[in-house]
Every structure is written in structure tokens, then in C-alpha cells.
């Protein structure tokens, strides 16, 4: 490495300091944007809107160990069906031993019961509000360890939950990973729910991903 004179050293130090200041400024802008989105979501939320959707567990039968079919079974039962989680697992066509369900597996299974679903890749809280306001739940893929209340200590993983309501401060969701109906209508503040949606990238998934009625 060549020797540097004092002017060159000072120039490098000034450049380094300016770069750190620029990075800090960018991080602050990102935090401000995230806070603004959460504040907007809060301002648009009513006092209370919650769908009474009965809970089902993903481990309720022989074929199921994934939250996607359980979320879909809860949704379909809310519409008047009488299904188990295993009924929906079989409708996906995946069979025993599958590791996870994709949005398209669940879309295909829903069609078997005359429910048309659509994948949303940029799901935000106001969109969830609109669906709930219309009486429709939303299935959301989250980074499960980011949730404040969870029943999985096996490490990083993506899990499906079914959003059933919201108020001015929290999102309500059913968690099929729970061992019993304590997984019904769990509340989580907006910032934490937003983080769990974004953290889905830690599992190699698209952030803000969900299923809505088409």
C-alpha cells in the first residue's frame, strides 16, 4: 500500500465520515417512512371490526402439519362448510409427508370448494382492513419467530395465519400452530405484524404475501 500524506489521510477520513452520515440519514428516512405507514394504518382503523371465525389446528389430523390448509379450512367453515384440516390437505393433492403449502396449492384447494382466491404480493394493512370490512378474512404468510406469541421453537420458519379482524391498535388473527383454541383471535400491534410480514424474506419468501377472495 503506498504511503499517504496528511492531506490524503484527511480526505479519506472526511469521505468516511460523510459516507456514515449518508447511511445514517437513509436509515432514518426508512424508519420515518415505516412509522408514517403505521400511523396511516392506525388512522384508518375503526374502533373494532372482528369476524367470528372458529379456530382449527394444523395438527388436527393424520395428514396435516402445515398452517396453510388449516387457515383455508377455517375460512371455508366460516362460509358454511364443515371441514377438517385434513379435508383441505387432501384437496391440495400434496399427500402425506409434504413440507409446506404454496399460495397456489391453497388457491387450487379453495377452488374445490367454490372459493376463488388470489395471491397478493404487496399486501398492506389498509388492504387487510378493506377485506375485513367486507366480511372476508385474509390468509397471510409471516415469519413465525417474529410473532410475540408463538408455539414453534424449531427455528426460523414461515407460517400461515388467518387474519380475522382489527381495531385502532391491533390486528386479530387465528394461529393454526397453537395447540388449542387459544390460537383464536390473537391480537398483535400493527408494527409487530408489519415486521412479521416483512421478515418473511428471512425464510426466502416474498414479503407482504397473502391470499384474498377474488
Description of the structure:
With 214 residues, the chain is of the alpha+beta class. The protein has two domains: 1-44; 48-213, Cysteine proteinases (Cathepsin B, Chain A), CATH 3.90.70.10. The protein has helices at residues 6-44, 67-78, 85-92, 103-111, 125-133, 190-198; strands spanning 48-50, 117-120, 138-143, 158-167, 170-174, 186-189, 209-213. Strands 1, 2, 3, 4, 5, 6 and 7 form a seven-stranded antiparallel β-sheet that branches. Strand 4 (158-167) and strand 5 form a beta hairpin. Helix 2 (67-78) packs parallel to helix 4 and helix 3 (85-92) packs across helix 4. The mean pLDDT is 84.
SSE layout:
Layout: H1 6-44, E1 48-50, H2 67-78, H3 85-92, H4 103-111, E2 117-120, H5 125-133, E3 138-143, E4 158-167, E5 170-174, E6 186-189, H6 190-198, E7 209-213
Amino acid at each position: 500500500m503506498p504511503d499517504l500524506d496528511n492531506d490524503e489521510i484527511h480526505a479519506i477520513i472526511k469521505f468516511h465520515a460523510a459516507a456514515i452520515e449518508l447511511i445514517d440519514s437513509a436509515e432514518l428516512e426508512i424508519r420515518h417512512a415505516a412509522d408514517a405507514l403505521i400511523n396511516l394504518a392506525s388512522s384508518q382503523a375503526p374502533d373494532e371490526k372482528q369476524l367470528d371465525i372458529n379456530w382449527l389446528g394444523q395438527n388436527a389430523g393424520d395428514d396435516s402439519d402445515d398452517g396453510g390448509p388449516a387457515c383455508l379450512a377455517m375460512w371455508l367453515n366460516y362460509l358454511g362448510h364443515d371441514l377438517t384440516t385434513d379435508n383441505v390437505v387432501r384437496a391440495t393433492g400434496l399427500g402425506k409427508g409434504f413440507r409446506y403449502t404454496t399460495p397456489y396449492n391453497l388457491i387450487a384447494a379453495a377452488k374445490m370448494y367454490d372459493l376463488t382466491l388470489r395471491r397478493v404480493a404487496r399486501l398492506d394493512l389498509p388492504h387487510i382492513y378493506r377485506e375485513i370490512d367486507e366480511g372476508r378474512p385474509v390468509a397471510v404468510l409471516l415469519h413465525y419467530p417474529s410473532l410475540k406469541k408463538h408455539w414453534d421453537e424449531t427455528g426460523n420458519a414461515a407460517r400461515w395465519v388467518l387474519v380475522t379482524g382489527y381495531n385502532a391498535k391491533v390486528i386479530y388473527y387465528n394461529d393454526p400452530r397453537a395447540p388449542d383454541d387459544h390460537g383464536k383471535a390473537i391480537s398483535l400491534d400493527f408494527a409487530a405484524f408489519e415486521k412479521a410480514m416483512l421478515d418473511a424474506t428471512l425464510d426466502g419468501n416474498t414479503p407482504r404475501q397473502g391470499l384474498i377472495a377474488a
